Amino acid sequence: xxxxxxxxxxxxxxxxxxFFTLWKSRMESFGGKDFKSLGNNFHTFSIMETLTREKIKExxxxxxxxxxxxxxxxxxxxxxxxxxxxxxxxxxFENKKFxxxxxxxxDRKDQKLASNxxxxxxxxxxxxxxxxxSQKLLVEWTKHPVMQPPNTQTLIVAISEKCVWAGxxxxxxxxxxxxGGRRYVGISNDNIAxxxxxxxxxxxEALLLNGxxxxxxxxxxxxxxxxxxxxxxxxxxxxxxxxIDKAELDKNLLKNPLVHFFQIDARDFNxxxxxxxxxxxxxxxxxxxxxxxxxxxxxxxxxxxxIHTLKVHSVTDFExxxxxxxxxxxxxxxxxxxxxHLYNNKQEVTLFLKKI
Length: 356
Ligand SMILES: C[S@@+](CC[C@H](N)C(=O)[O-])C[C@H]1O[C@@H](n2cnc3c(N)ncnc32)[C@H](O)[C@@H]1O
Prior knowledge:
Elements: E1 2-3, E2 9-14, H1 20-29, E3 33-39, E4 42-47, H2 53-58, E5 64-67, E6 70-73, H3 81-92, E7 100-105, H4 111-124, H5 126-130, H6 135-143, E8 154-159, E9 163-169, H7 171-174, H8 194-209, E10 219-223, H9 229-236, E11 240-244, H10 251-254, E12 259-262, E13 275-280, H11 286-296, E14 300-311, H12 318-331, E15 334-340, E16 348-355
Parallel strand pairs: 7-8, 10-11, 10-13, 11-12, 13-14
Antiparallel strand pairs: 1-6, 2-4, 2-5, 3-4, 6-9, 8-9, 14-16, 15-16
Helix pairs in contact: 3-4, 8-9, 11-12
Bound molecules: S-adenosylmethionine.
C-alpha cells in the first residue's frame, strides 16, 4: 500500500460522461489537473489547493468524491484479497477516527465483493468503532443510508479490478448519502414515469444532506406534472399537490383527493393559493421554464423551497443558460442554495432555491 506524499492531493470522483468537459473546465479553474478516467464515469485528478465543499459544489457535476489518502494496486480475484485488504486498510487508518465504513465498486458487477470487504473491515475495526457507533446504528445506516448524520466521519473505500483507493470524508463532503453516488430508487408505480419520481426522492435527500427537510411541506405546486411520476410520489407521502400540465395526467391519479390537476399552460395557473414548496419539471427552453417557475414563486411562502430542473439542450450553451436561469430567479427574490447533477438526472441539472 502506498502513502501518497506528493504535495498535491489526489481525488476520486464520479461525473457523468456527458458533462465531463464542463466539470473539468470548472475544476481546472480551481487548479485541478492530471485527470484520468477509471471507467464507469469515475475519474481521478489532483489539485494543490484544498478542495472545499463549496468548490466541489461549484463544480456542479460532482456526484461523489473523496480525497485519496492511500491507494493499493491489486487484483480483486487474488486469493486472500479481502483479508489482506481489510487488514491493510485497518492498519493504515489506525490513527483516524471514523464512525462508519463504506465500500463501493467502480463496476457494479463487483458489488458483492465490495459488501464482503466492508463486512470484513467492520469486523477488523469493531473494537475501535464500537466507541463511536453502536451495532444497531450501523445496521440502520446500512439499511437506510439517509439516516446517517451528514457530518459522519466515514472511511471510504473504492475498488476496481486493478486498484483499491481509500480516504476519509463524510456524506456532506462526498456529496451523497450513498457510497459512490449511485442512488437507485425503488418506485411503487411502474405505470407512470419512474425516473421522474426518482428525481423527486433524490432531490429531497440532497436537501436533507444540506440540512433542509421538506418533509414538513404539505402543499406542493408541481409544474410539468404529466404523466404523473412525481405527483404520485408527493401524494403517496400524504401531501397535497396542485399538478399543472398541458398534457394528460395518469387517470388513477385524478381519483386521488390529494391531487388537484389543472390541464392548462402553466403560465395561466392563477389560483390564489399559498404553497410550501414548488417542484418544476417543465420541458422546453431553460430560460422559459425558469421564467414560468420563478413567476409562480409569488404563490410560495417565505423561505419556501423550489426544486427546479434545468434542461440541458446543448452542453455548449449550458454556462450561458445557467447564468440566465440564476439571474431570472434572483430577480424574483429567490436564492440559489446549490445545484446538483443527480444520479437520476440525465440531460438536466437540478437547482435548489429558496424564496427570501
Ligand atoms: C419531463 S415531463 C414531466 C414529467 C413529470 N414531472 C412526471 O413526474 O411524470 C415535462 C412536462 O412539461 C410539460 N410542459 C412543458 N411546458 C409546459 C407549459 N408551458 N405548461 C404546462 N405544461 C408544460 C409537458 O407537457 C411535459 O408533460
